[in-house]
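Table S2 (text version). Query chain:
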Amino acid sequence: MIEQRITRARILIDSDRLKEAARELGLALAVDPDHMEAQGLAAFVEMRQGLHAEAGKSAERTIALAPDDEWAHFMAGIVAGAAGKTGKAKSCFREALRLDPGHARTNAALAQIEAEAGRYEDALDLTTRGLELEPE
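Corresponding structure-token output:
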């Protein structure tokens, strides 16, 4: 049941139906409050809704539920970046890459932060690594 709710929430997120996605994720978390994926997606939905404080708390809970999971740190980085917390986003992305150096999207997200800070060589290195990992 939880997996179906999460799949449904992902589809709703993709179709920009965020209120409905939040409802599905809330129902999933009511059944299993420690479900890391549901918690991380809830953080993403809250972020997209502009609820940055709530999204930050949900992202931190996601990491607490799965401190060794690359996706938990990646999602926390996305949420932190959207809230303008560049330092926090950068540390989350770096931890995600430590856990899974082969994650191309994390390389791209960190490269964007480096480019925005004017660290173009670091950004180029990260994008090169990302392209090597995922050439298409």
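Notes on Table S2: The radius of gyration is 15 Å. The chain has eight helices and no strands.
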